[in-house]
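Possible regression after last week's pipeline update?

I re-ran a chain I had predicted before the update to compare outputs. Posting the input and the new output here so someone can diff against the archived version. Not blocking, just want to make sure nothing changed silently.
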Amino acid sequence: APAPGSLFLVGDPKQSIYSFRGADLFAYMRASRNVDSRYTLTNNWRSEPDLVRAVNTIFSNPKKDAFLYEEVPFEKATAGDVKDRTLLTVCGRREEPLQIWFLSSARLETSGAKTNQSMTADIIASSVASEIARLLNLGRQGKAKLRTEPLNEGHIAVLVRVNREARIVQE
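New output (post-update):
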């Protein structure tokens, strides 16, 4: 049992980046410097095991801090044992839960985007929007599914850093 006057702070450094929610990463880091111990929830009950494994691999580089600040360590997660995880299938084949796209330097060069950050952002947003449209069209045809349910707009979210990026993708 905690001693009288004990204080428990609950925070998630990876959630504290969302300043639009009133979160403050630096307040989290200041508070975490003054605690005797930390506890971390390591079971991920929402994601596919392969996605958890991929994220662990990407952020587990021992040579540098995964989130730039030593006070925000990366803690490996394990996939909780949930049998009804939502798996994306396209045309009956399971899609990889993490995909990384690369922009062709030739495409950037010919479009003039190589030296224009705004044009590069437009190309990225256009590519993301095209992929979303492709998947939604397949969902309407019953060819893209989350488990047994056809993929629809409510299943998709796009995370962006600034409002301008969201507007570009939405357009």
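Follow-up from reviewer: compared with the archived run. DSSP finds five helices and six strands in the chain. Marking as no regression found.
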